What we know:
alpha+beta
Amino acid sequence: MLKNKSGKSTELISLYIPPNKQTSDVITHLREEHEQASGIKSKLSSNNVQGALDFLLAKLRSLNKIPENGIVYFAGIINTGANRTGMLNEVLIPPEPVLDYIYRCDSVFYLEPLEEMFRECSTYGLILLDLREATIGMLVGRQTEVIKHLHSTVPGKQRKGGQSAHRFEQLRRIAIHDFYKRIGDAASETFLEVEPSELKGILIGGHSPTKEEFSESGFLHYELQKKVLGLFDTGYTDESGFSELINAAEDTLQGIDLIKQKNDMKMFFKELATESGKVSYGEDHVRANLELKAVDVLLLSEDLRSERVTLKCSVCGYENKRTRKWKSNEAVPAAGNCPECGSALEVTDATDLVGELSELADKGNARTAFVSTDFDEGSQLMIAFGGIAAILRYSTGV
C-alpha cells in the first residue's frame, strides 16, 4: 500500500529508528527539520512537511520505549485521486531489527529496508575453515550470526627437531582429522537443531584444498551433507568471512529461489493440463477456495499491484466496491466518475489485495509463493492469469 502512494513534491517522510537510538536525539533532530521546513519556498509544501513532522513529534513524545526491533514511521500528504489529497500516517513495528537511523523526505516513501526484511527469511548454515580455525554460523534472512568459533591444534608444516619427517606427518594428519571431526560435530550440533524444512542449505567457505578435503571426507552428518550447496573461496575464516562467503554464493542462492518458483509453476500447469480440478485462477475463484481452506499453494506474481477499494460519491451518495489493478511501472488508476451523476468518485477505503489474500492463505495453512516474471511461466502467471492463481489440495468445483 505504501509503495503505491506518492506526494506532489518532497513532502513524504520516512523515519527508521533502531532499538539503540535515544528518543531524545530523534526529537531534537525532528525539531531541527521542522525549523528548516519553514524556509521552503512553497507555503503549501512548508505547511505539509511541518504537519507531518508535528505528527511524528507527538508520536515520539508518547513513546515510552523503542521496541526491541526498533520502529518505523511514515507520514505525509498523499495524492488520493481526482486532484485530491489527504494525510497518511503509518506506524510499523518491523519483523527484524532496524539497523540504521534513517530520515528521508521525498515524493515517495523510502521502503527498501522494509522490503528487504519482508523477503522470505530462509535459513542457511555457514561453515568457514582453514587449518588454523573454523567458524560456524547461520544466515537467517539477511542477518548472520556466529554460533561457534574453533581453534585447531594442527602444527605448522615445519617439524621440530628430533622428529622424523614421517612421524611428524603422521601426527599432523591425526591433528587435522581431529580438527575436521570437531568442526563436523559442531556443525551437526548447530544445524540439526533447525527444522529440516527451514534449513535451505549449507555454504562452505575457506581456503583450498582444506574445504574440499573436509567436505569430501564425510565429517558432516549425512543429512547435512545432502544440503551442501557449494564450496566457495574466501580470504577470511573468522566472522568477517561470512559476508565474503554470502557474496560468493549469491548466484547459487538466487538460483535456488528461482528453481522453487519454476517447480511451483510447473505443478500448476501440470494440474491445469490434466484437468484435475486442482487449480484455481482469478481473484474471485482463488478467494473462494481460500475461504474453503482448499488451497495448498497460493501463487502471486511479484508484479501484481492491486487494491480492494471502496468508492463513494459525495454528491449523490453512490457507493461501490471494486478491485483496481495496475502494472509495476504504471501509476495507480484514478477512481473515475460516478455512474449515477458523473461527479468524481472518492476512495474512502483501500485494502492491499496481496496482503489480504496472503492473510487468508495463512489462516488456511496454505503456502504463499511470490513468482518472478523473469522466466516464461512466471510471465504467463501475470499476463494470462492476472497474477493470481492457486494449487488446490482437492477439487472443489469452484
